[in-house]
From TrEMBL:
Binding site for substrate: K78, K102, S358
A GO BP entry: L-glutamate catabolic process
Active site: K114
Species the sequence originates in: Chryseotalea sanaruensis
Gene Ontology terms, MF aspect: glutamate dehydrogenase (NAD+) activity; nucleotide binding
A Pfam family: ELFV_dehydrog
This protein's UniProt keywords: NAD, Nucleotide-binding, Oxidoreductase
Name the UniProt record assigns to this protein: Glutamate dehydrogenase
Family annotation (SUPFAM superfamilies): Aminoacid dehydrogenase-like, N-terminal domain (SSF53223), NAD(P)-binding Rossmann-fold domains (SSF51735)
Residue ranges occupied by any Glutamate/phenylalanine/leucine/valine/L-tryptophan dehydrogenase C-terminal domain in the UniProt entry: 191-422
Residues under site feature: Important for catalysis: D154
Length: 424
C-alpha cells in the first residue's frame, strides 16, 4: 500500500507519531484499503482557542486551549480534557485518535476526541482554574453537546472542573444539560463508580492477563507509576485482589517497600499533603526510572506518555505491563518489549474502563435514572473482560502483540462502519 510514512522518530517520541506507527502496522495486517487509511489517519476537526483570563493578581494571562475531534464515525465524539503545562496540539491529536480506537475496542457507540489547556493547575488558584474552565467551555460552545462531543476528566482535571463545564454550557442553553459532560460530581448526575472506573479496568484486565500468564495474584508483586486518579485506584484495587504493591510514584519521586506499601495510608497521606506523596516515610525513595525497571511481576505505568523508551526498555524486568496511562510506551520500545516476551495490555484496552463508565453516566443522564454502584461495576467488568478476550484471541489468531491486536479490532470496526455509512 502506498501509505505516507510517519516522520522519523526523534529520541523523545512525538505522541502522534507514536500512535501513527502502530496504526500503520495494524492497518497493513488488516489489509485496510488506502482510502480508508487516509480517512482515519487525520483528525476530523482541530480547534485552537485563545483564552484571556484575569488572574488573582489583576493581570490578564492568555492561555491556549485545544479540542481535537478525531472521528465521529461510531457516534458522538468522547474524550477527556487535560490541564498541564506540556499540553500541545500533537499530544491532543494523538490522545483524540486513541479515544476513537479505545471506544471501538470496548464496543461503545462513541467516536474519539480530546481537549486540553496549556497551563499549570498546581500554581493556579481555584478561582483562576474556574475562570479558565468557563472561558474554555464558552469558546467550545459550538463543539460540545450531548449528541455531538462529550468531554470528561483527564490529567489535571476532575469532577470539580466537569461541574463548572456543565454549568457554563447549561447557562447558554437555558436549561440543565447534564449529559454534555461525564465525570461530574455524583450529586449533579455523575455516575457511581466513575471515579475508580479507569483503575478498576486496569485491575480487571491485569487479572485476565495474569490468568493467561499463570501468575498467581496472591504471590505477585507490582509497581505503579503515577498516583493520581488512575494509578492510585489501580494500586488500591490490585492490592485488594492480593498483589503486593512494592512501589508507587508521582512527580516528587518513587517510593519503594519490598514488603509492600500500605496503599490506604499512601492515599490518606497524599490527600492530606496537597495531593503529593512528597515526604511519604513508609517506603524508601527511588527514582521514577528505577521504579520502571524493578523485578516485579506486574508494572502499571499510570502517569503520562513516553515513559517506557528504547533506553529503559532493555532493563525492564516485569512479566506483564498494564498501561493505565495513554501512550506510556514509545513505539521504539515496543519492539524491545516484544523481543523480551513481556506481555503488554495496551492503553486503548487497559484504561478503557473510564470511558466505559462515562458512557454509563451519559446513558443514565439521558434516561433521568441512577444505577447502583454494583450495577455499574458488574457491567463495566463484563465489558472489560469481553474486550480483553477479544483482543487476546485476535493476537493469537494473527500472531501479533496485544497492542497491534487491539488496534486491529478497533480499526476494523471503525472502517466497516465508515463503509456502511457510505463515506462522506
Ligand atoms: N482519569 C481517567 O479516567 C483516565 C486517565 N487516563 C490516562 O491516565 C494517565 C493518568 O491520568 P490521571 O490519573 O487521570 O491523572 P492525574 O492528574 O489524576 O494523575 C497523574 C499522576 O501522574 C503523576 N505524574 C505526572 N508526571 C509524572 C512523572 N513524570 N513521573 C511520575 N509520575 C508522574 C502525577 O504526579 P503529581 O500529582 O505529583 O503531579 C499524578 O500522580 C494519563 O495518561 C491519562 O490520559 C486514561 C484513561 C482515563
Ligand atoms: O471518560 C471519558 O469520556 C474519557 C476518558 C479519557 O479521556 C480517556 O480514556 O483517555
Amino acid at each position: 500500500m502506498g501509505y505516507i510514512e510517519p516522520a522519523p522518530l526523534a529520541d523523545k517520541e512525538n505522541p502522534f507519531e507514536a500512535m501513527m506507527s502502530r496504526f500503520k502496522v495494524a492497518s497493513e495486517k488488516l489489509g485496510l484499503e488506502e482510502e480508508v487509511y487516509n480517512v482515519l489517519k487525520n483528525p476530523a476537526k482541530q480547534v485552537i482557542v485563545s483564552l484571556p483570563i484575569t488572574m488573582d493578581s489583576g493581570h490578564i494571562q492568555v492561555f491556549e486551549g485545544y479540542r481535537v475531534i478525531h472521528s465521529t464515525i461510531l457516534g458522538p465524539s468522547k474524550g477527556g480534557i487535560r490541564y498541564d503545562e506540556h499540553v500541545n496540539i500533537d499530544e491532543v491529536k494523538a490522545l483524540a485518535a486513541w479515544m476513537t480506537w479505545k471506544c471501538a475496542v470496548v464496543d461503545i457507540p462513541y467516536g474519539g476526541a480530546k481537549g486540553g489547556i496549556t497551563c499549570n493547575p498546581r500554581t493556579m488558584s481555584a478561582g483562576e482554574i474556574e475562570r479558565l474552565t468557563r472561558a474554555y467551555t464558552s469558546a467550545m460552545i459550538d463543539i460540545f453537546g450531548p449528541d455531538k462531543d462529550i468531554p470528561a476528566p483527564d490529567m489535571g482535571t476532575g469532577p470539580r472542573e466537569m461541574a463548572w463545564l456543565m454549568d457554563e454550557y447549561s447557562k447558554t442553553q437555558g436549561m440543565t444539560v447534564n449529559a454534555v459532560v461525564t465525570g461530574k460530581p455524583i450529586v449533579m448526575g455523575g455516575s457511581l463508580g466513575r471515579t475508580e472506573a479507569t483503575g478498576r479496568g486496569v485491575m480487571v484486565t491485569a487479572l485476565a492477563a495474569m490468568e493467561k500468564l499463570k501468575i498467581n495474584p496472591y504471590k505477585a508483586t507490582c509497581a505503579v507509576q503515577g498516583f493520581g486518579n488512575v494509578g492510585s485506584w489501580a494500586a488500591r484495587l490490585l492490592h485488594e485482589r492480593g498483589l503486593i504493591i512494592q512501589a508507587i510514584s508521582d512527580v516528587s519521586g518513587a517510593y519503594y517497600n519490598e514488603k509492600g506499601i500500605d496503599i490506604e495510608k499512601a492515599v490518606a497521606y497524599r490527600d492530606m499533603n496537597k495531593g503529593s506523596l512528597a515526604g511519604f516515610t513508609e517506603a524508601s525513595m527511588i527514582s521514577n526510572d528505577d521504579l520502571l525497571t524493578l523485578p516485579v511481576d506486574v508494572l502499571v505505568p499510570a502517569a503520562m506518555e513516553d515513559q517506557i523508551t528504547a533506553t529503559n526498555a532493555p532493563h525492564i524486568r516485569a512479566k506483564l505491563i498494564v498501561e493505565g496511562a495513554n501512550g506510556p510506551t514509545s513505539s521504539k520500545a515496543d519492539a524491545i518489549i516484544n523481543e523480551k516476551g513481556i506481555m503488554v495490555v495496551p492503553d486503548i484496552l487497559a484504561n478503557a474502563g473510564g470511558v466505559t463508565v462515562s458512557y454509563f453516566e451519559w446513558v443514565q443522564n439521558r434516561l433521568g435514572y441512577k444505577w447502583t454502584a454494583d450495577r455499574v461495576n458488574r457491567r463495566s467488568d463484563r465489558i472489560m473482560k469481553d474486550a480483553f478476550n477479544n483482543v487476546y484471541k485476535t493476537s493469537q489468531d494473527y500472531k501479533v502483540p496485544m497492542r497491534i491486536a487491539a488496534y486491529m479490532v478497533a480499526i476494523d470496526k471503525v472502517a466497516k462502519t465508515y463503509k456502511y455509512r457510505g463515506g462522506y
